[in-house]
Hints:
Elements: E1 7-11, H1 15-20, H2 22-25, E2 38-42, E3 52-54, E4 59-69, E5 85-95, H3 106-109, E6 115-117, E7 128-133, E8 136-142, H4 150-157, E9 168-170, E10 179-180, E11 185-189, E12 196-202
Parallel strand pairs: 1-9, 3-12
Antiparallel strand pairs: 1-2, 4-5, 4-9, 4-10, 5-6, 7-8, 7-11, 11-12
Amino acid sequence: xxxxGSIYGVVLxxxxxxxxxxxxxxxxxxxxxxxAPVVYxxxxxxxxxxxxxxxxxxxxxxxxxxLLFARDACRVDxxxxxxxxxxxxxxxxxxxPADSYxxxxxxxxxxxDTLWLGQAAAPVLPDAIVLEIDGAQALHFPLSRLSRxxxxxxxxxSQFMTLRxxxxxxxxxxxxxxVIAPGTHIGVRGGALPAISIEAEGATT
Length: 205
């Protein structure tokens, strides 16, 4: 997928995960659930250009949907937010397993070659994203599970930041994404979008 801007994602946009973490939200340091979208950035080096390298401890393979902006989104509303899109694609955002979202180490979340992007297609959103491991369904992630729908997410983000033409935004990660091991085959599909099919290889030291 070709893009020319920044890569953004959001965490804690899964209603199932937010329900599971409800008690933790009341603890330090925040003592309340997040009210605004929780945004993170991925460096260009995270976009995979070679095989997926999996360390001995495994990687969390989180399937998601990436939105590619064709025009700037600044203070748009939910009804018009998706008109800013030029394309969408399936994606896998892989990371080293961690117990907390609070200030994770950069290496855990932003390693090289850990973001897989599928082929771009017209911006028609699927009802669900399915992750398969070695041909068997490992996760079914309906977009109805999102705390903020893609349109609401774009609208809310655009109130305090501008999503520019060429930027890529991942709509959220399932909180129950599985940990994959070296030597497995990973597939992601969703609606009519081009599927992702990759092999997970052992990391070299």
